[in-house]
Design brief:
With about 250 residues, this protein is of the alpha+beta class. It has two domains: about 10-75, Arc Repressor Mutant, subunit A (Orthogonal Bundle); about 80-245, GAF domain (Beta-Lactamase). About 45% of the residues lie in helices and about 20% in strands. The protein contains nine helices and eight strands. The chain has helices at about 10-20, 30-40, 45-55, 70-75, 80-100, 145-150, 155-160, 175-190, 230-245; strands at about 60, 65-70, 105-110, 115-120, 135-140, 190-195, 200-210, 215-220. The protein has a six-stranded antiparallel β-sheet, sandwiched between helices. Strand 6 (about 190-195) and strand 7 form a beta hairpin. Helix 1 (about 10-20) packs across helix 2, helix 5 (about 80-100) packs antiparallel against helix 9 (about 230-245) and helix 6 crosses helix 8.
Length: about 250
Amino acid sequence: MAGNSRQAGTSVTSRALAILSAFDEQHRAMSLSDIAARSDLPLATTHRLLGELSRWGALDRLPTGEYVIGRKIWDIGHLAPAETGLRQVAEPFLHDLYGATLATVHLAVRDGTEVVYLDRLRGNQSVPVVSKVGGRLPLHATGVGKVLLAHAPGEVQDTVLGGLTRITSYTITQPGTLRRQLRQVLEKGYATTREEMTLGACSIAVPIHQRDRVVAALGLVVPSLKGSEQRLYGALRVAAQSIGRRL
């Protein structure tokens, strides 16, 4: 046990975990002093542990001097049984979906008020795609995000709808409009976006069910949905149902 924490009897492991726990959706990049305050640790202790965590890869230091969560945390998170199982089960169906559509394929889950991309197969169509494996994007501006938001608890929906940010000129920022879209997702079984995340890119996505729970979303990104929406929805639905049966 170490003795230089404000909280007597706190172990080195507990203090390192307190530093990592200081990061959340509203605090994704923080200075040394901010981290020390949020983790309730002395500056000297925080500085030393930040150095160790950064050298190991749990944290990265930006040119501004602020710290962010490092890639090593994501790599370890991939070993979690639930996520690993989902990706392994979904992988062949993602390839089948890509072969049938030649579009960018996404497998994603919700983490709080963001969508996290577990897997991505890049399509050969000339479409700007900003997603990356392990990356996070807003729920309200992505196809997979809208699916996950439609099936999220009411308090999550209220939080997201209370802070809709404009990303492109087509992003839905009116809470009433988005609520109507979320109801339509539940009625139709799929969500769409039209240049709401990136200009020149549209998307369509469906939920993946494990028994009676929606555990993930499966989506496609294409230049346009005109004339192909129902065909793409059919391909997505077959793939999602197949993944769900295997889970």
